[in-house]
Design a protein that fits this description.
The protein has 279 residues and is of the alpha/beta class. The chain is built from nine helices and ten strands. A ten-stranded mixed beta sheet has the order 3-2-1-4-5-10-9-6-7-8, sandwiched between helices.
């Protein structure tokens, strides 16, 4: 099985310390992986905008000041994280880059096994974009699994795989093993079905077989419920003290599954544990 060797963490100057960094440190301690901190200077908010006649020089100076402040904050965030990793005796590399944040993270991700980000983008990121839209764009273009982290992180003792039998859920399972995270904890595969436990087992069996073929310690849990799947998934992850949730793009319709699933969006918004996504 693939081993977790390298973790990429997206850093923002507006959040010099965050739960995503705590996750990276915890996983690096457990696996021996190297951590890469990428401090992004979001240049999208400093792009040229329409200005009144005679205001060009002022606007240019304003953009220069804003970028300078962002660069300083990014360097400070990187230094803070580097000191933390050094104190934990974790191999660390870091870099500050300027540009479009989700593009920068996706490009750098090619060198790493997994990407860890906060599930709330900085307030000044991309004018007019919601945190969900920011995450959705990153997840769509990222060549590696993306782990979104809520505001607080409590290490757990298992990985909960929300599996609905769809090709996208199978792809997420493949991403879990490819990242190396599947070797660090036992896996509980959860299927929510409105009909019966037998129906849930039928939907889940291929995922169970795949995990066991790769000698991953796996247990199966079927929940028969017509409640919103996102509620059930989040409740179980919290109740079982899971370290993370793994899921593909879940949705109630074929269109929702093809796009960024409605259930996935709800879990991102409600989950109290990190969410592993691979599309």
């Amino acid at each position: 099985m693939h081993a977790l060797r390298s973790i990429l963490v997206a850093l923002h100057g507006s959040a010099p310390e965050s739960a995503s960094q705590e996750v990276a440190i915890a996983w690096a301690r457990r696996s021996g992986a190297e951590v890469m901190g990428l401090a992004v200077v979001d240049e999208t908010v400093a792009r040229r905008a329409a200005v009144p006649i005679g205001g060009t020089a002022f606007r240019r100076e304003e953009r220069a000041v804003l970028l300078s402040e962002k660069q300083q904050s990014a360097h400070e965030a990187l230094e803070t994280f580097a000191r933390r990793c050094q104190a934990e005796d974790i191999q660390f590399q870091g870099e500050v880059r300027g540009g479009v944040p989700h593009d920068l993270v996706a490009e750098e991700a090619q060198r790493h096994d997994v990407v860890i980000v906060d599930n709330q983008a900085p307030e000044d990121y991309g004018a007019g974009e919601s945190p969900a839209e920011v995450l959705e764009r990153l997840i769509r273009i990222c060549p590696r699994p993306v782990v979104t982290v809520p505001q607080a992180y409590q290490p757990g003792n298992t990985i909960l795989v929300a599996f609905d039998g769809s090709p996208l859920a199978a792809r997420a399972l493949f991403g879990l093993l490819g990242s190396g995270l599947g070797a660090l904890w036992g896996v509980r595969l959860l299927t929510v079905d409105p009909q019966s436990e037998q129906s849930a087992r039928i939907r889940a069996q291929r995922g169970i077989d795949y995990l066991r073929q790769h000698q991953v310690e796996t247990t199966f849990q079927a929940i028969v419920s017509d409640r919103p799947p996102a509620e059930v998934i989040c409740e179980e992850a919290y109740r079982q003290r899971c370290d993370s949730i793994v899921m593909g793009s879940h949705g109630r319709s074929a269109l929702a599954k093809f796009l960024f699933g409605s259930v996935t969006k709800e879990v991102i918004a409600k989950s109290t544990v990190p969410l592993f996504l691979y599309h």
